[in-house]
Each structure stands twice: as C-alpha cells, then as structure tokens.
Amino acid sequence: MLLPPIKQRVRDSFERAAATYDQAAVVQRQVCDRLLDEFASSNRPFTHILDAGCGTGYGARLLRARWPSVHITGVDFAPSMLSIANRDTDACFAADIEKLPFGDSSFDLWWSSLTIQWCDTDRVFSEAARVLRPKGRLALSTLGPDTFSELRLAFSTVDTHRHTLPFSEPDSICDALARAGFGNITLQRKLHTVYYPDLKTLLRAVKAIGAHNVGEGARSGMMGRHAWQKVEAAYEQHRQPAGLPASYDVILGYANK
C-alpha cells in the first residue's frame, strides 16, 4: 500500500502505538460509545458493516454487541492494529479508507470513529458512498477545530509552527457529505475534556495513541529547555482543580445514501 509521505508517517505512528493504544485510548472509547448511543435506536437489520479505520477493534466489539449476527469488515492502514482487531471482526484489510478494496454496494453501514481527521474528507465520503448499498447508513465521529485549543495557545508563546492537526469545521464536513451524495445529514457537537497532572503526561498520552503527527508545518527540531519551560508555564494558566485540561471538540455525524 503506497501512501503519501505525511500519511506514511501517521501510519508508522499508529504501527508503533498498537501495543499501548487500548490502555491509552480512554477518550477514543468514550467517543465511540457516544457514536453508537446516538445511533443504536435504529431498528434496521444491518447485515454487512464496514468499520473504516477500525484500529484495535473496539468499535467492532460495540457493533457486534448491538447486532450479534452482522458481518463486520475492518479496515485500517496500520497492520499491527489489524492483528488485534482481527479477533473482533469477520474480515480485516490493510487499506486506506480513501481507496477501499471493495466492490460497489457492498455494505449496509459505513462506520468510522475518530479516523477521518487524518484524511481527505471528499475522497473518504466518495468511497463511503460507493461501497454503501442504496439507502445505506453512515455514522462517523471526528474532531473539530477547538480540539487541543489549550495546547495550541501554549505553544504559540514560543513559535508559529503547527502543533496540532488542522481539524475540520462542522460545516465543511456537512458540505463534503452532501457533495458525495449523502442526505438526511445530522451533526452533533460537544466538548469533551480530559485532565492530566502535568504537560509531559498529557503529551505522553497523545503519543501513546499515535496521534502526535500534525502534518505540514510541524516543528522540525527539538525544543530547547527555555522554550519548553515557557510552554509549560503558559499551559499552567489553564490548570483547573482536576488538573491540566485537554479539550476534544467531538463531532458526531449521521447520514443516508
């Protein structure tokens, strides 16, 4: 699987993070739970579900519990993640969700939790529409622009480099879904905050889930001691009784083909 250099670095990060992912992915599990909670009232009898960006298979386990007889296919571009997800899916494929290795109209439900932020949404949704059957459903979670706002502010005190991904606005996600031909689009947005005792612990948690690649514009060299102390001091301005906050601007999306 040939990937662009930026996406290759992201895949390499997730490859290294597979062993630590499940222990560290507290937010990811909670978001996945919410995605299903808002969707599980559907009484439609799905037969084939695609988990696009399945990671280690947490979403597949939730889907299996909700629809025990469904056939679940997992796709992820990190083979080490798939080696774990294989226990909870009926089939696994190492592939980019922007170019799926399936025929047209193969699935009843296209499901993806906290994956599309690494991708070109137009390509992802075009592929989702292609592999979904007529009247198929789409359910996704992703992160909005207020994610890691505290981190961006703290690092802005020392440089102008990018230190987080350029997360999408809800309107741009909605527009991309409409361009791909989806209808009945519904988006929900809610801020989710996690607290850490200090900045180093926060950054280690982000690295443990492989989410520390930020694409173009990232700092290329190591940060000096003085700069690091300045960042820590800036982040301390956000401290609350529970600790240092890390904000996740969670977006849930649902649509019909």
Automatic annotation (TrEMBL):
It catalyses: malonyl-[ACP] + S-adenosyl-L-methionine = malonyl-[ACP] methyl ester + S-adenosyl-L-homocysteine. Belongs to the methyltransferase superfamily. GO terms for molecular function: carboxyl-O-methyltransferase activity; malonyl-CoA methyltransferase activity; S-adenosylmethionine-dependent methyltransferase activity. Residues 50-139 form the Methyltransferase type domain. InterPro entries: BioC (IPR011814), Malonyl-ACP_OMT (IPR050602), Methyltransf_11 (IPR013216), SAM-dependent_MTases_sf (IPR029063). GO terms for biological process: biotin biosynthetic process; methylation. Keywords: Biotin biosynthesis, Methyltransferase, S-adenosyl-L-methionine, Transferase. It comes from Candidatus Propionivibrio aalborgensis. Signal peptide: none annotated. This is Malonyl-[acyl-carrier protein] O-methyltransferase. PANTHER family: ARGININE-HYDROXYLASE NDUFAF5, MITOCHONDRIAL. It holds the Pfam family Methyltransf_11. Its EC number is 2.1.1.197. Pathway: Cofactor biosynthesis; biotin biosynthesis. Converts the free carboxyl group of a malonyl-thioester to its methyl ester by transfer of a methyl group from S-adenosyl-L-methionine (SAM). It allows to synthesize pimeloyl-ACP via the fatty acid synthetic pathway. Gene3D superfamilies: Vaccinia Virus protein VP39 (3.40.50.150). It is an enzyme of class 2 (transferase).
